[in-house]
Amino acid sequence: MAPVSSPAEPAFDLPDAVRAGEAILCSQALDLDGSLRFVPGRLVLTPTRLLHQDGSSGAWQAWPLGASHRLMLADHAGVGQLDLVDGETLVARWRCTLGHQSGLQRLADALHARGSAALTGTESEASTDAAEPADSAPVSGWVLLRLWRFARPYQGQLLLGFLLTLAATAATLVPPYLTIPLMDKVLIPYQNGHRIDSGYVALLLSGLLASALLAWGLGWAKTWVLARVSERIGADLRTTTYDHLLRLSLEYFGGRRTGDLMARIGSETDRINVFLSLHLLDFATDVLMIAMTAVILFSIHPSLALATLVPLPFIGWMIHLVRDRLRTGFEKIDRVWSEVTNVLADTIPGIRVVKAFAQEGRESGRFHTANHHNLQVNDRLNRLWSLFSPTVTLLTEIGLLVVWGFGIWLVSASHITVGVLTAFLAYIGRFYTRLDSMSRIVSVTQKAASGARRIFDILDHVSSVPEPAQPRELGTVHGHIRVAGVGFRYGNRRVIHDLDLDIRPGEMIGLVGHSGSGKSTLVNLICRFYDVSEGRIELDGQDIRQLRVADYRRQIGLVLQEPFLFFGTIAENIAYGRPDATRSEIVAAARAAHAHEFILRLPQGYDSLVGERGQGLSGGERQRISIARALLIDPKILILDEATSSVDTETEKEIQNALDNLVRGRTTIAIAHRLSTLRKADRLVVMDKGELVEEGSHDGLLALQGAYWRLYEAQARQAKDDYRMATGDITPGETA
User: Fold this and answer.
1) Is there a contact between 632 and 578 (Cβ–Cβ < 8 Å)?
2) In degrees rounded to 5, what are phi and psi of residue 579?
3) pLDDT exceeds cutoff 80 at 451
4) CA separation for the pair 378, 263 (Å, rounded)
5) Pairing relationship of beta strands 637-641 and 493-503 according to DSSP bridges
6) Where do runs of H (alpha helix) occur along 415-536?
7) Predicted TM-score of the model (pTM)
8) Residue 506 falls in which region: left (phi positive, over 0), alpha (psi -120 to 50) or beta
């Protein structure tokens, strides 16, 4: 056995089957098995194979790797999943908690880099980089052309900006041309004893001043026009991306980190905006300047102009050489920066939990690790760029020396005048400056292309809850819900099985069952947060998939176990579903929700600010505001998801009184932790493992002594033990 170790992990043993001298490209520990049990394991990547050690048995298994093999990484609900695929065929799958996911990303990147190295003959650096998602195609600068759909509304202004750029560039090329007569007809004749024609000099100097003023005016105009256009394109891109994100289903958000999405809509759109407003304008100016300067140079002296082109092949070769590395580098920077924002997005909203468990040091360590990783990737890219940019400058300086030498020889041979050489050198200065600037645009172009690809990853994603092609009108809603033969799969896991349920208008049903029985999933399907895999759900006889999503959801009032309040006033939170509600309507809803009294005790009453996520209010107060919010929209269907499970008994009575007002006359589906709170339900529906196992009234189900009876008895025993423990009759050990 060959021991292997890394600075961050303890040594482990490779199997004897590893060939002598076989390199280890990357290794990563695992902590879950295929059944999501906590079992240690390990993946090891070599140039030819991927090996896996089963932590429970210690056995190793190996998969030979070909050119078509790749690793696909995804995460959902706190579980990372790594798939080894060959083309479209799944070869093997491993899982881990999200704490190990960054390591799996490095493993995926190592396999990707291994394939690139095999094609290019270069050494891989993947073991220390952030991973590139294995299922993502390499990004190219051509992705920026897709931004034209956002630029099309402003094509007239873009054309004006281009014409202004063309005119401004032409104006800046006038002064060097005027130096020819200044040298050959004024200064050199003066040195030879001729007098200066002051009128002629004044005319030339006036031409220089006029061209400078014209260039300044045109430059200001084209910068203003194109900056305004680019700002609007950036704003449209940001708005379109955010609107599309809001239309995506919950399934999409289940596999994404908040910090990553914030980075895409924020920093990536800003990066594209800067590219459009500054760098693209510079690039267009550079191209025009180089093209127009080249024409002038060849018109002055073709042979000398050819000498200026000596550095071009070398610069072009260098640009081609670093372009792919820059592209990969900026993609890695995007991903590692998302790691930094993910830590912030996790920690800041959960700062109470962090402080409650005294985990400030741990979260600081997470941030330092992510930030250090970001620093490493940036350092590697900066090392490449710091070599490339000065090399281009050196090549242009060498080209300038070639022109000086060749030009002096031409002057000595009387093929050109000193004035022509002076003008030529002035033009070459502009030519090489723009050439150097144009080479630097490679960096910002690849950076913008990387950002554009991440934006279009969102825009290209199709919601799994689509709008109907020909939506039906909802009409008057009575609230009759029918669940017919519904099945639902989450990935490969079947969560709901052939479920049938009929809920009459105005009826209140209670959904009960063990955790994981499918209650919340059924509610999500009824709300159409997800679409059923089999069967159908109907509202008043119409399949809800044939209705506009917004029209349907406006008929549903949702009261969650943990109500979410936005930063703003109490009144704004109550009126969230109906922003146009009057103050009297808001107060009426608050009164019905038994929230009016405590709201008036706040410093500014209904205009009191609520902290982020309802900070400053108790759980019962937040819940009553959410009930008022549901009352205000007057829904025909009401969903209560554990609405009273996280409050004390006294607060529960207040909330229950508010709920009594809320459920009156509405079709209500209630999930409750305490079965005693469902006694007012017209019917109880008992679920187990995604199936409906019992249905009936509270007393009727108790008489059956089935699944509901067992749940009720278990809760009764727990409540009795809790009471005896509170009074000191028994100890925790005796209860257990």
Assistant:
1) yes
2) -60, -20
3) no
4) 17
5) unpaired
6) 418-459, 519-526
7) 0.57
8) left
